[in-house]
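Components:
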Amino acid sequence: MSKHINLTLKVWRQKNQKEKGHFETISAPDISTEMSFLEMLDVVNEKLSLTGKEPIAFDHDCREGICGMCGAVINGRPHGALKGTTLCQLHMRHFNDGDSIAIEPFRAMAFKVIKDLAVDRGAFDQIIQAGGFISVNAGGAQDANALPVAQDKAELAMDAAQCIGCGACVAACPNASAMLFISAKISQLALLPQGRPEAARRALAMVKTMDRLGFGNCGNEAECEAECPKGISISNIARLNREFFKASFGASLK
Amino acid sequence: MLLDGKVPTGPIAEKWDRHRFELKLVNPANKRKFDIIVVGTGLAGGSAAATLGELGYNVKAFCFQDSPRRAHSIAAQGGINAAKNYPNDGDSVWRLFYDTVKGGDFRAREANVHRLAQVSNQIIDHCVAQGIPFARDYGGLLANRSFGGAQVSRTFYARGQTGQQLLLGCYSSLMRQVGAGKVAMFPRREMLDVVIVKGHAKGIVVRNLITGQLERHAADAVVLATGGYGNVFFLSTNAMGCNVTAAYRAYLKGAFFANPCFTQIHPTCIPVHGTYQSKLTLMSESLRNDGRVWVPQKAGEKRAAHQIPESERDYFLERKYPSFGNLVPRDVASRNAKQLCDAGKGVGATGLAVYLDFADAIKRDGRAVIERKYGNLFEMYEKITGEDPYTTPMMIYPAVHYTLGGLWVDYNLMSNVPGLFVIGEANFSDHGANRLGASALMQGLADGYFVLPYTIGGYLAGTPKLNPATSSLEFEESERAVQARINKLLAINGKRTVDDFHRQLGTIMWDYCGMSRNNAGLEKARGLIQTLRSEFWQNVTVPGGEKDFNQSLERAGRVADFMDFAELMVIDARERQESCGGHFNEAYQTPENEALRDDEKFCHVAAWEFKGTGKAPELHKEPLTFENVHLTQRSYK
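Structure:
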């Protein structure tokens, strides 16, 4: 059953990386509760376009919670307050008539604002480039079933592999650390036998890159896990720490 | 003109192996002298860019999102096919080949499909080696499930997120090459033209989507892996950014566009819930392994699902197709759902939905098992609709999902424009008129990992190096034309938004070129499209500036191309006087309402050549000969 509600948006507007930004108050009347949050922004943008104003810039693509492109801080919560939900999956039935909604970009030193709500998350690609892979060229692999993987390990690896690289963890963390992001990829590969040969180098390289790019250190706040739309657990961070420690210890012995 | 697919001679099972021997090679030490451009970094483009980098070529890869990991391949859910026959239930390379040709309603190039089946096993091997966390059985070996159009269990999967895991696997490999300096990655770039020098594709012009700057890039070969054109319907399961622009620009520069009217409508998607709807969400075909599709027997039924007793339910797919049941191919399932809804038996507020019910599966296997197999899909459904599929049946309706048409390519995946290669959904070749589930992932990776790296070597080794300069006249003209079009779009200052035009175009296409087509409707649609396009160029408003992050301008360019392309689709649909796969012309159907092919007159690929603005495109045919597969009326009874 759809009803219609009236909302007031306080949206972060910023022309580009160099200019200072500010909050702009925009009214969003007559919003159907069946709409998704981004569909609501589409409707607001249509009106802005028709009245000669610049629409709100925001990243999005799949609108099904899997590509990791969308994301904003809604009333202080990355992707909004609903657990396990990306911004594009958040529907307006979770808001009430008369609500005021603050909408801001993900904020971190390593995520520069491009415009309005869109930020540059290129740092994530750079971290993966440092070690988030298994070095295997196409063509030489053995039969897929030659290496059995215990089902429980496979499930944990899949749990970690679900990270969509959205950056909500960075936005939620008081230190803007990317530890949850790194730990997800490192855990996936550490849990699987294919990932063992490079595990040490991977852990060291990815953490080093994260530090170099301006992300903060982990303070065990667990805000990241609370906000992660894919339910990535901080037990992955514990695993990352073990891998990192093993790798550092091993390196110091050489 | 009759097109030649350049299929090698000899028995089909030997063609690819012999061809790889006969293709010229680029010496390992020489590979670093060649530059290759890859546009689009989804499964096909990402795997191609990574593999070409591994081989030693210099690669420049482009995508319009902020990272290759965002490509819409990531949303594919159900699985990837391969002919491993681990379940020991009768699969083989030959059977996978046969099922795919038959599933495509005998409109694919036989040799390409056999090659696809052949390399399918290597794909799984490579993915496992990359660390992709496929589902496993208790013994630690890979798990399999069934998909539509097959009677064997040949699909490998990672929960309901197989596309995500496969894409992240090839993204990781791509990032390794970027880190190693073999691939230069250019995100936030949209290709707006391909540059032809002396008849060969030697570069592209792109727009930097953040600064608005136009850039020229030169190379020895250009690979387009830019996905499908489903968004011509406005509502589809595609991502918002998916578009036909790169492929269409190549068409304008001389590349033939093949079978554009072959579009696939997926039977199980979440139904439309409002006029502001921005896209449709897919519910994986894998759900049909366990879900049962039904409608109430009575038209206009008002009772809730749980109030309708078994005796008053019509499990119509099981009833009509006893041997395939709920797992009939997509075109068959979609048409059946539509026919029943048209007859007034649909459910939900709009009457445009059928039930996909898991009650029996949950009773049989327990909720925990169903949750492990489909957990994320059920969650996704609940987030969007607010209903719980564990306790009430899902409501689903067909939606545009995949496009089988695309740029024409030969056996080497090269278009008729030398040096222009097309892979993945962007090309037309392997699926015919209908694609089986779990085969898109297979094709994208086959093209990128195991086919293109060989065939592009053959072209590079056999073609004199041109080393075109980006300052050359061809690049200059290209950039000028791109700039002029941008200026034009920004200067119109009309009264209707881009999305408003796009929505209207989508409605025309869905109504007249969707699940069911007829000659009068297609002719009418052509007129409607021309009128709408004319109005677009006079009345669209594109706010904002050019040298800026301007998403309205991005969308304007894409919709402008859709306005042109839509007309090509209806021309193609009108030309094909038969029904096959997803192209259903009401005048050609069997007494049981299935697609009726005309193999005598239409067993060919329809490849269209651009002849100039306002002029009709010219049709070229590639005759399809089936030496190994027996042409039959497809039956899934």
